[in-house]
């Protein structure tokens, strides 16, 4: 019973055509003597009571839906459903049902009326035979018709037979005639019955019925019937909206009457599906699948008919790019092209390729270049959507067009620069358009979708073009907002710090974060081009100015940019960082953050932890030489002690290497004499070795005494109340003591929390440091959280 594959919920359909939950249990299929056949048994998982006992009848129509539902009818108006927890359990029971009925389990319906004659159906299912005979289409019989239509929805066989009856007798148009009579008489009861009838007919899911109902002379009456929902106090006014509010605009006159009729029909049917009909329940999702297909194929037909009319599309693009076209007309043209592209998503891949190639040949990209630079916000938004369709379809096509543009003196006319400027100038406070455009730019400059097989030079040529003509436009806001501000009164004399111009503007901060995200992507994917640009523009220094921003998300973006650069472990970048002293703003941000235990704190520590773990020697030496005095008081993680340890190890290694080869001429002569002296060879060799060991022991002993003395002093200080750590003296840069302006702050006293070391992250390289800590028997302090 614990097998979840057989765990099911049992549902029955009530008089209101709603599914009632009868309980949860486990289903099995066994032979029941009393019923004389294989039956479905469901026992409740709570007490083992029998929730369902249903014989699998050879003539009952079972239907499998959505891989986890089995639905069937046992008698008139008594419908059952099993909802399985797992698909595997549903498949097992379905196979058992099909085995009993001798049907193929690959089918979703066990009884198909198309495969058998109508007479056989009457013989096999006598209880449903009367459903074929529709009552006379009269006002007095509307309630009977409504009950009949709603009662067949759960049975595929009865739905099929009712649909055939409705088609053969021209019943739909007679019903719609009754609707007009009821509306004239204001017969609300009859109108409510007609709502149920029309809704039920739609749920029969038959394309042949849709063709009748959605024809020009019937569709508005169908919409009228659906206005009179019994659940509403007052009927909706859908027909008024469709005929008066919704306006059909022909940007270019459509001469093909069939095309115009198809466009009207598609809009109205889409309105019925999206606005009028309620959201189908879990058991009704498949009832409108044919309606969805009806709309889908209509859209395909519309796109194909428009695409074949070359004169129409040529005229559209001619007016779109004509300077004499009025702004209102151009807005309608752009919206038409946008909707046209949206419809194209229904096409098969091969047809969609042909569609976009047609647009490219007609000049869609030059037209976008014009309209994206216009002042009208609606036009720009629609043009952005069209551009996104094109980039999604073929980034290479867009790149090829951009590189073939004539190189004019003004780079602003280039399509990519127009896109960048629209991103920068987005007036939306949330920068929704800018985010969309940034994603499109990233797709265009992503080397992963630059196909080497079609054009081996595409990556080199396009990236060279982008960095030459477009990169300065992208970074302009960043450089402008991190310019030197020499008139700032708060700036101390001699400081080299750069202040942002608009640090408090949230929208500007969001924009700079987007630009930094794109630049970080470039660092990861463009090796040579972005490296050259960063070096030439001293870009990292300007980015790190944003570490001073009051917007933490922007400071984190700047830090992430530096982290990606260091993550490459490129010595060119490392030398650039060391030469520019670019760790200074990061360490200042760490110290300014104080005792706050937040994301910025963790991100900065992770940066230094990465340097330590990867043993980037040049950066370790630079950090320890210039900033260790300011960082040694941070003890709640072992990162900075670890950096110092790495530094000392490398220093010892280098000194030993020098000592190994440092010999004067006299020692060489003595060695030569000793070498020739066979009698004293062993004794002298042992003496030299012993002397080296004593020298090493003395130096190591002094080092450990100093280290233990420092540790004992710290332990004594910690035995009483925790004393505040005095401010560390400023770090001195070798040969240039004034070049570093690292802030040194005294961290407030914190209590000793535990005698054992609890680091934020456990790294394998910390083992040596852990051993030293155990020898010192000293507990590091834990920086308190803000809430403490």
UniProtKB/TrEMBL annotation:
Serine/threonine-protein phosphatase 4 regulatory subunit 3-like central domain residues: 144-649
Signal peptide: none
Pfam families assigned: EVH1_PP4R3, PP4R3
GO MF, any single term: protein phosphatase activator activity
Location of the region described as Disordered in the Swiss-Prot/TrEMBL record: 672-693, 714-788
Coiled-coil residue spans: 644-671
PANTHER family membership: ATP SYNTHASE GAMMA-RELATED (PTHR23318), SERINE_THREONINE-PROTEIN PHOSPHATASE 4 REGULATORY SUBUNIT 3B (PTHR23318:SF18)
Function in brief: Regulatory subunit of serine/threonine-protein phosphatase 4.
Name the UniProt record assigns to this protein: Serine/threonine-protein phosphatase 4 regulatory subunit 3
Organism of derivation: Menidia menidia (Atlantic silverside)
Organism classification: Eukaryota, Metazoa, Chordata, Craniata, Vertebrata
